[in-house]
Each structure stands twice: as structure tokens, then as C-alpha cells.
Amino acid sequence: MTNESVIRSTSQAWKFYAFNILSLMSVFVIVVAAVYFPTSKWQTTFLSIFGGLLACIGFFIALSIQCPKCQSRWWKLSLNKPVSSRAHAKLMSMKACPCCDFPQNKSA
Ligand SMILES: [Zn+2]
Hints:
By secondary structure, the protein is mainly α. It has five helices and no strands.
């Protein structure tokens, strides 16, 4: 039994960080569009679409965080639980898959 979080041991932590970075970037881009180009229609439209695109890419990267054994999507599972501000912290410190207990029963 390892003490390492299962997301790190399956090399999927980068997906979680990418999701956070892309989410922040999308908010930043949309705010920049609203603040710096309030009267320019095409720049605001372009930057809003770009911001939305970043958020979509981040969403699909986060959705691809999955169990290598049972393919359950851990990020989605963490959101399905009762809303908690620590849902993402719990996801990152998760020691085993909530569905199949991977990697605890790997040798079983
Ligand atoms: Zn699993």
C-alpha cells in the first residue's frame, strides 16, 4: 500500500493542473475582453469565444482523469458528491479509486 495519491501515481496530476490553469486563463481572457474592449464588438466576441474554448479544453482534460482499471471518471465523481469546497482537494489526495479500489487490489 502506497501513501502517494492515486492521481499522482497514475501520472494524471498534470490534467488537474491544466484544468485549473485553463479555467483561470479563460476567466482572465473574458475579463480582459470586457475591460479593454468594451466598445469593440469583434474583439470582445473573439476573446469571449477564445475564453470559452479554453474553458472547454480544460473541462475535457479534467473529464479524462480516469481509473486505469475500471475507467470511472474521478473528476466527475468528485463533482457528483454533495457539494463541498474541498471536493478538488479530496480528489488530489485520493489514495484509491472509489469504484474499484485501484491500486489497493492490484495484486488480488
Ligand atoms: Zn477504478
